[in-house]
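Input structure tokens:
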């Protein structure tokens, strides 16, 4: 399910639970909502509220870390691509095909990842993509003529290995997001809290409007968490600018 859809559904559930709480409070006997009863309900709800706040804070920090790591990894890969192209340029004209394939790889990666297919998981979009392996095959086929070319070949294979590792890391982690079981439990905690809000709050339009705004805010937080956990898709995604800059630097003599 898309992050935006998940956030909207949770916001709707929370708003409905608050409205349900107001209906329940009107039907309960007065002694069920006495001062002592309300105090006990508030104390019990405070425990769930604390758990929910801690969970949301942890998820926001985790999602931000995931997003920042993906951005850093992309910049590192872009720098390695430029470095690999320069090493191949120093090797000589024998690497012309390898450099052309490398540039095509970057163009393909930009089209696959940022080319209007952000609604699909990164693993689906890049299924069957071998990454830099075709370029590595050409590199291994090189026959160095002297020690300089031998060192350049070793350096090129070393840099390409780092690029390949980053490629497979993206595929392995690109489909991760909020665990479904954890999301269900968190949603249940939030429903309990908003049900209590509706149960204990005065029945007027101002209070209900504020509760609904709060429900939308919590739904927005879940959306941000879920969206940032998929840094190569959704509305909040890593910019392709580092790869475009790398592409503009590649192919130069």
């Amino acid at each position: 399910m898309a992050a935006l859809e998940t956030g909207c559904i949770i916001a709707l559930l929370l708003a409905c639970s608050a409205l349900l709480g107001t209906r329940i409070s009107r039907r309960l006997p007065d002694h069920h909502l006495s001062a002592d009863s309300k105090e006990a309900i508030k104390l019990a709800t405070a425990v769930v509220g604390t758990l929910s706040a801690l969970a949301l804070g942890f998820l926001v920090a985790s999602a931000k870390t995931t997003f920042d790591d993906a951005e850093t990894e992309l910049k590192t890969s872009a720098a390695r691509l430029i470095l690999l192209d320069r090493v191949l340029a120093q090797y000589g004209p024998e690497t012309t095909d390898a450099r052309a394939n490398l540039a095509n790889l970057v163009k393909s990666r930009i089209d696959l990842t940022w080319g209007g297919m952000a609604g699909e998981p990164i693993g689906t979009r890049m299924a069957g993509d071998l990454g830099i392996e075709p370029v590595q095959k050409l590199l291994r086929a090189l026959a160095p003529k002297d020690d300089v070319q031998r060192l350049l070949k070793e350096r090129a294979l070393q840099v390409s290995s780092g690029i390949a590792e980053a490629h497979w890391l993206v595929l392995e982690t690109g489909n991760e997001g909020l665990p479904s079981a954890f999301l269900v439990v968190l949603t249940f905690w939030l429903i309990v809290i908003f049900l209590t809000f509706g149960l204990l709050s005065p029945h007027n339009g101002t209070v209900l409007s504020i509760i609904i705004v709060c429900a939308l805010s919590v739904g927005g937080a879940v959306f941000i968490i879920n969206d940032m956990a998929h840094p190569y898709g959704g509305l909040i995604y890593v910019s392709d600018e580092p790869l475009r800059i790398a592409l503009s630097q590649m192919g130069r003599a």
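The two ends are 47 Å apart (CA to CA). The first helix runs from residue 3 to 27.
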